[in-house]
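Example 3.2
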Amino acid sequence: MAKLAAAEAAWLRGACGSGPPAIHPKPREERIRELAYLRAERRGFTPGFDLEDWLSAEQELTAARPDLND
């Protein structure tokens, strides 16, 4: 598993936090979408990696905060 880029790690900390879940947390799909976008942006939006970005983002979120997964 590739390490998260600094921007992605910062986003994870901001989106997931380390404290108790927010009263209205973002839906899991929205968190994945945003992280996948950051991955695509880092790569320069090279086409053909959409699924890879999505699956990697989903895996990272699951590993980072399993308590916030559906």
